[in-house]
């Protein structure tokens, strides 16, 4: 029986409203079917949960790309209710489908608008900014950067936010800080919402408002990006690449404004760096073999930042790895890749026995380091690596998990993949929603994304220069220990994300 014809657009719309409300913890009547799904703070993992549940209901697996083409519930429901052509959106990841992306020359993408000319403005030295502009304030790292800026400066923080009006924007920013237990009422007046959109020209503002902001702002922190493990380069380009270009445009109008850009160690994902040590100031000219669309956009975006730097813009570049929870409280983003993988493997009862290094850094370390380093005049023009200086092997994590009483085993990766394909069939397991990421095959060698992240295929990210720059600041990266893992686990159990062993 083909179930997809059994549902009308109204049925699917009602189902999506109910499930989205449950996913983000609001009432059904708070969901606007014409609102962009991203405006509900829906990250890539949550989007995949919706897609996977839809598969169960409709009897076929909608492509995650539908969420790009039809980004609100009304449009998506209508599209799903149509009698789709054969294979139009069906994407069978259970068989480990081969993915052959179209040829893409990232070097050709790295072209900064020639009208962005910071060298046409007089140089500037900002020691105590009064007005800071920040992107990504409704995200995880962005929330902690806001906290640090509020504590370490006296500046008002102007935060770009997608919202219907400033009141809604301010509410979204406050709720995000509250969700990570870092909201303080005394800072309320210093957080200023700027309604806009990273994916639109002039950041979604009118030309006049853009110019007023350019005249008012002293310093920019650009941490905003669309993170999605499934989307290719094209759907992510507007927010991650062109959005960065608009930030650089803002920095180069009326008066010069330093830009502190949050990049990623993903700029070194090309196989050309495998087994090599890459240092903070090394060039990253190799892009061939970077397959994740998100990583591709970060490579291009940082290239644009470097072009702007060469044209005279004062910049600092900060490259974090995967980011883990707050080392003191354990509070974390439960929808990030690390937590979803751990939860899924616990439910499966198996971890893959692979040569992975846990090089994630706690969010409090990353945010403190970014703000401190950005405020040092000697940092201008430099890049910094926020990689954990002493990563731990995945095997250590598995031993910790076992010591807490969880009945899990490490099995060969191929056997783990077979378990994932054959025995993980419920959307209650996060691995089910991550199948498009875990099972598609890329490159001439037809490797899965996890294959590409094996230690033998990765570079060694040096953070020696960064650690030296942090000396005397009291900021240090906490070691990855059983105690820290226990702190994280306690939070995840307390919130109901994990069950007690």
Which SSEs are present, and which pair or pack?
Blueprint (H helix, E strand, L loop, with lengths): L8 H16 L19 H15 L7 H4 L3 H9 L24 H4 L21 E5 L4 H13 L3 E6 L4 H14 L11 E5 L11 H10 L2 E4 L10 H19 L7 E4 L14 E2 L14 H18 L4 E5 L3 E2 L12 H12 L1 E4 L3 E2 L2 E2 H12 L8 E3 L6 E2 H10 L5 E4 H11 L6 H4 L1 H5 L1 E2 L4 E2 H4 L7 E2 L2 H7 L11 H13 L7
Parallel strand pairs: 1-2, 1-4, 2-3, 4-5, 5-7, 6-17, 7-12, 8-11, 9-14
Antiparallel strand pairs: 10-13, 15-16
Helix pairs in contact: 1-4, 6-12, 9-10
CATH structural fold name of the domain at 125-328 and 359-385: Rossmann fold
CATH-level-4 superfamily name of the domain at 125-328 and 359-385:
NAD(P)-binding Rossmann-like Domain
Biggest sheet strand line-up: 3-2-1-4-5-7-12
What are the segments in which pLDDT stays under 50 over at least 5 consecutive residues?
A: 1-5, 83-99
Oligomer: single chain
Sheet with the most strands, sense and barrel status = 7 strands, parallel
Task: Characterize the structure shown.
Among the domains are: 3-81, Non-ribosomal Peptide Synthetase Peptidyl Carrier Protein, Chain A, CATH 1.10.1200.10; 125-328 and 359-385, 3-Layer(aba) Sandwich (Rossmann fold). It has 501 residues and is α/β, with parallel strands linked by helices. The longest helix has 19 residues, at 233-251. Strand 1, helix 6 and strand 2 (156-161) form a beta-alpha-beta unit. It is globular. It has helices at residues 9-24, 44-58, 66-69, 73-81, 106-109, 140-152, 166-179, 207-216, 233-251, 293-310, 337-348, 363-374, 394-403, 413-423, 430-433, 435-439, 449-452, 464-470, 482-494; strands at residues 131-135, 156-161, 191-195, 219-222, 259-262, 277-278, 315-319, 323-324, 350-353, 357-358, 361-362, 383-385, 392-393, 409-412, 441-442, 447-448, 460-461. It is 40% helix and 11% strand. Helix 1 packs across helix 4 (73-81). The chain has 19 helices and 17 strands. Mean pLDDT is 87; it is low at 1-5 and 83-99. The strands form six sheets. The protein has a seven-stranded parallel beta sheet with strand order 3-2-1-4-5-7-12, sandwiched between helices. It has a two-stranded parallel ribbon with strand order 6-17.
């Amino acid at each position: 029986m083909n179930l997809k014809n059994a549902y009308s657009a109204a049925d699917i719309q009602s189902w999506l409203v109910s499930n989205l409300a449950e996913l983000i913890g609001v009432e059904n009547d708070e969901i606007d079917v014409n609102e962009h799904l991203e405006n509900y703070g829906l990250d890539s993992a949550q989007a995949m949960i919706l897609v996977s549940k839809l598969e169960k209901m409709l009897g076929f697996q909608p492509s995650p790309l539908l969420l790009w083409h039809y980004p609100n519930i009304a449009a998506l429901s209508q599209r799903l209710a149509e009698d789709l052509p054969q294979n139009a959106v069906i994407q069978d990841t259970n068989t480990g489908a081969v993915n052959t992306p179209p040829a893409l020359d990232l070097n050709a993408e790295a072209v900064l608008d020639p009208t962005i000319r910071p060298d046409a403005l007089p140089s500037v030295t900002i020691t105590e900014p009064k007005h800071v502009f920040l992107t990504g304030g409704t995200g995880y790292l962005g929330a902690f950067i806001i906290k640090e800026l509020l504590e370490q400066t006296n500046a008002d923080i102007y935060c770009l936010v997608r919202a219907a009006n400033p009141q809604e924007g301010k509410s979204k920013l406050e709720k995000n800080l509250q969700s990570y237990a870092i909201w303080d009422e005394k800072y309320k007046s210093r957080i200023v919402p700027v309604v806009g959109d990273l994916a639109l020209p002039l950041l979604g503002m009118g030309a006049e408002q853009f110019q007023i902001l350019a005249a008012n702002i002293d310093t920019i922190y650009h941490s905003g990006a669309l993170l999605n493990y499934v989307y290719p380069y094209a759907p992510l380009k507007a927010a991650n690449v062109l959005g960065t270009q608009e930030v650089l445009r803002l920095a180069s109008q009326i008066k010069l404004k330093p830009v502190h850009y949050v990049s990623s160690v993903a700029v070194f994902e090309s196989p050309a760096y495998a087994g090599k040590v890459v240092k903070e100031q090394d060039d990253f000219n190799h892009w061939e073999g970077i397959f994740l669309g998100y990583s591709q956009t970060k490579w291009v975006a940082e290239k644009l930042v470097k072009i702007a730097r060469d044209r005279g813009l004062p910049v600092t570049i900060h490259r974090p790895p995967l980011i883990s929870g707050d080392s003191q409280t354990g509070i974390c983003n439960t929808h990030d890749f690390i937590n979803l993988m751990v939860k899924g493997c616990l439910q499966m009862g198996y971890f893959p026995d692979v040569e992975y290094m846990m090089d994630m850094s706690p969010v409090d370390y990353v945010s403190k380091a970014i703000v401190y380093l950005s405020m040092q005049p000697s940092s201008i023009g430099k890049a910094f690596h926020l990689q954990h200086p002493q990563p731990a092997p995945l095997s250590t994590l598995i031993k910790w998990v076992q010591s807490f009483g969880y009945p899990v085993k490490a099995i060969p990766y191929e056997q783990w993949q077979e378990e994932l394909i054959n025995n993980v069939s419920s959307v209650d397991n996060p691995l089910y929603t991550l199948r498009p990421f875990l099972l598609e095959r890329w490159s001439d060698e037809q490797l899965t994304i996890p294959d590409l992240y094996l230690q033998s295929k990765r570079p060694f990210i040096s953070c020696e220069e960064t650690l030296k720059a942090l000396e005397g600041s009291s900021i240090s990266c906490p070691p990855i220990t059983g105690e820290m893992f226990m702190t994280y686990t306690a939070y995840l159990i307390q919130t109901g994300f994990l069950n007690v062993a």
